[in-house]
Design brief:
- The structure is a single chain.
- The protein has a six-stranded mixed β-sheet with strand order 2-5-4-3-1-6.
- The protein has 342 residues and is an alpha+beta fold.
- The protein has helices at residues 10-15, 45-48, 51-54, 81-90, 92-96, 139-149, 162-176, 183-192, 204-214, 224-235, 248-256, 263-277, 283-298, 311-324, 327-341; strands at 2-6, 21-24, 32-38, 66-78, 105-120, 127-129.
């Protein structure tokens, strides 16, 4: 069965039918029956301090570590500025139960039914399949990476920051479902793959692999052989590498790293990267570089390669190529995206 893990109290709010929209930074093409799992993750401090939000579960037991209800996922709506404003004014309770921002996605849930008997389970990222006897991800590993590694991405520019890392993690775990691999290794490779980008973007894959190997705490979770495989996969992830990844792990994360969420998000990432690394260019030259860079990387003769089937990427790539086909219109689009960033 398909399952989505949520941090409490969001899962319980859905079970209690006080929340019928789940907000995410990524879209999904999945439609159908979906089970809701309350993860073991602690309630974020900012949520605890939100009295209005927490009052919705006052005197209601939370359900950490359990699959607690099922529903139907019927739609995935791209949030426009108008959509966010309408939600805020017409459905305020729903509004305070999610993160409503232009560019995010609203997953519409219907026919919510609490389970008579909750199912004990350890969660996963993205939509995952539950089968009795499943080997779950190591929650201690996840907590270590979330608490100690994720904050380090604040040193990178936005294009290689934590939002990008979480997108690569999600896509990597989705791809991993089709292969006989250790999902803890997949998660770790995706989590570390750009950690050294702020030091030297040109050799960041080598630096990131070195940072992983020198992490004494991570040794508790993997054998030496597994650590070598993880190291190699981090080294092999870069789009401009001339060699194919040496293992299936490298192919999974390298494919997942070709992230095109949508055209405007891709422009934003590219401009952020250019702004930080090409400070000597004028604004006009930086905008022109965004077009040239994306054409060189994702154009019909581009160097970005994927090694595994990824329908989500293929669809997004076609939209980006269509946008790039008219340079004048694309340059205007870049300017429009930049104006919203400033």
């Amino acid at each position: 069965m398909k399952v989505l893990s949520l941090t409490e109290p969001c899962a319980t709010l859905i079970k209690e039918k006080k929340k019928k929209v789940e907000t995410r930074s990524w879209k999904t093409s999945y439609r159908g029956e979906l089970y809701i799992h309350a993860s073991l993750t602690k309630i974020p401090k900012s949520w605890k301090e939100n009295i209005e939000f927490m009052s919705l579960v006052e005197n209601i037991p939370l359900n950490f570590g359990n699959i607690i209800c099922k529903c139907n996922l019927v739609d995935c709506i791209y949030m426009t500025k108008e959509y966010v404003e309408e939600m805020k004014t017409k459905n305020y309770q729903e509004y305070i139960c999610g993160e409503y921002k232009e560019g995010r996605y609203a997953w519409i849930l219907e026919n919510i039914q609490p389970l008579k008997q909750p199912i004990k389970a350890k969660g996963h990222l993205s939509i995952w399949n539950y089968e009795e006897g499943d080997v779950p991800m190591n929650n201690e590993l996840i907590r270590y990476i979330e608490n100690e590694i994720f904050p380090l991405y604040n040193r990178n520019e936005e294009g290689h920051g934590i939002k990008h890392i979480k997108t690569v993690i999600r896509k990597s775990l989705e791809l991993a479902k089709s292969y006989n691999v250790d999902i803890n290794m997949v998660y770790t490779i995706a989590a570390y793959h750009d950690i050294g980008h702020y030091i030297d973007r040109k050799t960041h894959e080598i630096i990131s692999a070195q940072i992983f190997m020198e992490d004494q705490n991570i040794k508790a979770y993997f054998t030496e052989k597994q650590r070598i495989t993880i190291k190699q996969a981090i080294e092999d992830h870069r789009a401009s590498n001339t060699h194919e990844p040496r293992t299936i792990y490298g192919k999974i994360v390298s494919t997942a790293d070709r992230t095109i969420i949508d055209v405007d998000n891709t422009i934003k990432r590219s401009y952020s990267y250019t702004k930080k690394n090409y400070v000597g260019l004028s604004e006009e030259e930086q905008i022109d570089r965004v077009y040239k860079y994306l054409t060189e990387k994702y154009g019909y003769d581009g160097y970005a390669k994927i090694y595994l089937e990824d329908k989500e990427f293929d669809e997004a790539l076609q939209k980006l190529r269509q946008a790039l086909s008219n340079k004048e219109e694309f340059i205007e689009r870049v300017k429009n995206v930049i104006s919203k960033m400033n």
